[in-house]
Amino acid sequence: xxxxxxxxxxASGLLKDxxxxxxxxxxxxxxxxxxxxxQKYLRGDLKKEENEMLRGVNPLDFPDMxxxxxxxxxxxxxxxxxxxxxxxxxxxxxxxIIQRASISENQITHKKLPDxxxxxxxxxxxxxxxxxxxxxxxxxxxxxxxxxxxxxxxxANIGWAYEYNFSKQGWAKxxxxxxxxxxxxxxxxxxxxKKFLKYLHDSLKEEDWEKKARLIIxxxxxxxxxxxxxxxxxxxxxxxANVIIGNRLKTGDLxxxxxxxxxxxxxxxxxxxxxxxxxDQDNANVILPISDxxxxxxxxxxxxxxxxxxxxxxIYIADLHTRRKDDLSRxxxxxxxxxxxxxxxxxxxxxxxTVSFLGRDQISFHFxxxxxxxxxxxxxxxxxxxxxxxxxCLFSGGLDSMAGAVWALENGLDxxxxxxxxxxxxxxxQKQIIRKLYEIYDLDMLSMKITETSxxxxxxAGIPKAIVSKLHSIKNMEFRGKIEIEKVLKTIIxxxxxxxxxxxxxxxxxxKHFGFKIxxxxxxxxxxxxxxxxxGASAQSPMAQFLRTFLFLSVATGxxxxxxxxxxxxxxxxxxxxxxxxxxxxxxxxTSHPHFLTLFQDLIRxxxxxxxxxxxxxxxxxxxxxxxxxxxxxxxxxxxDTTSCWNWFRIPLIAKQEELQWCRETHCGExxxxxxxxxxxxxxxxxxxxSKYLFDLFAEYPFLQNEQKVLFADFIRFFxxxxxxxxxxxxxxAPDISNFSSRVTTPHLIDMFKTYATExxxxxxxxxxxxIIQDFYKLIIQIKPESIFEVA
Length: 792
Description:
There is one protein chain. By secondary structure, this protein is an alpha/beta fold. Helices cover 49% and strands 8% of the residues. It has 32 helices and 14 strands. The strands form four sheets. Strands 12-9-8-13-14 form a five-stranded parallel β-sheet, sandwiched between helices. The chain is globular, with a radius of gyration of 28 Å. It starts with a helix and ends in a 16-residue tail after the last helix.
């Protein structure tokens, strides 16, 4: 047990007193409670609706079903620093329970159970609690240890992460050797859990976690792991407010609706580095594209939708500016005024749960009353759905979103494309691709619809009254294409058409592509500068954009609600949508995870009363299969225009640092998205359409640093294991793949990941140069591991 103890002790930065004892106590408690619920189900004692839910569950969905229910009761258990460790430990525990269970027919009283659930009967009894806790503890400690082993050490030439992947001779270890390492570690963790179990079991007898159970668990760490957890006092303080949104200035400081910043400081803990953001149009230090949106829409957007935009923006800013600790945890407290105060206050829990799942953050919202006094009935009125083919399509400018645009146009849909861009260069790329797509499909992006709001704009813009009066006759009628629009305008305006045409179109153009950027104003006065904090990610914040999708979907939803559209499409290949950890020590995001999409969809329904469907049509497709949709079509020539690289905006700087000649390459070639992009295009036989790369990992690659070697080995090792394992064995290795949702089923996800693993491994073997892939990493994909489960 020496190595396991050392690794747990080494994780002292991760294992804080309150976090660790809270995680162990409450996750164990809820796991046992859920197992008791399963007992009732097996006896037929559950309520009818609960029975029906469990009856339809596939055994491979069961691990995530248990975890989802636990998370529903206590979202804190899914947050950093221990959220991923807890999730994987619970899912693995359920996998072991399912696998080990066995039963004979005459011992079952509930005769109508599916076969796999019959197997749970013997172990789901009052005496099973200790065994379940022991299994859970073993996996909990194992996940802590394996996270430490696989964590890259930038400063060290040879670290644990390197030794996990490579032999002393420098060759990558096979996955059979990897399995031996994991098995030895698991045995040590099992020994620790057997000794630690009595402390956890005793703690669960106590109802008071803070004063009693917590101390018992601390004692277990001292006695069995020789580890003293630094005691964290529970200091009851005011709620955190580190992101404060104001909507006007008064005497040089923020005012939040009808609440002053001084009042906020009395009620909340406002740190010195709190971000103070002003949305007031005259003095704003952050510019929201609301006026641009209203111009495109031809009317003023409704108060509830303005709230949604501002909440989405505040989340985006908080994500960029709130630095994570070394253990990845962070607390975000957002205070902002909203117009629909009662509605948002009532659904605040749903909002916090949705955002927390997206970033594994501890997040809280505090709403104040907006200065605008709006009657309840005027906050929001649903728009009638007129065109069933109308839809919103998120468009980022990447390969998947371009394939999604092709999918929408090929299926005869009438899409409005919504894009978010952090730089004007990316915004230009997005516009260019959409314009070229419309040209290829011989569609005209130009369309015109006169509305009451646009008529008011004409009056203030100096359009003669006689022309405005004539425009009334075509109000709310939509005209498409340059030829038809010019014909209509010539009839109404006559010889003055060219004088007023651009002004009329400016305020009546129908929305086809809406790109937006959250930016700072070009000019700021002294009062605004006083509260200004420049937008941009902290240099020490890893993977800064965890929460951007909330903003992206908020804007798309606002457009859908105003236009009477009931479908929003987000396009992401299935493996990235699920985005399992390809190493326990890596980070992942959940930008298009099916559970997040469900949470967001439910939030919008509860706030607006409108049922908008948010769908990912590519949920079961790999990137290679998605790119294949564009093969042998004119659209394939646009592939080089798309952007997949994590580092694309830094490529000139990287080239300079590496003393490489930069010839306008748009991809670095060495980040994971670049590798996946290149393999996908190879799969679809479209490599010739690709853009240039600064580095070519598949050719004679420059000298690899140990950190890069470990990253690449982790990547190959994950897919080699997926390819080599089956069902429960595969889920045990990668429990993140188990997903219980109305959107997906785990068996289909397993099939997809198998296809994806084949795509990745065969692509690497075919494209990689001999020195790097076929020799250097060949052992990883050479030997099939032995399953930890006995084959029946």
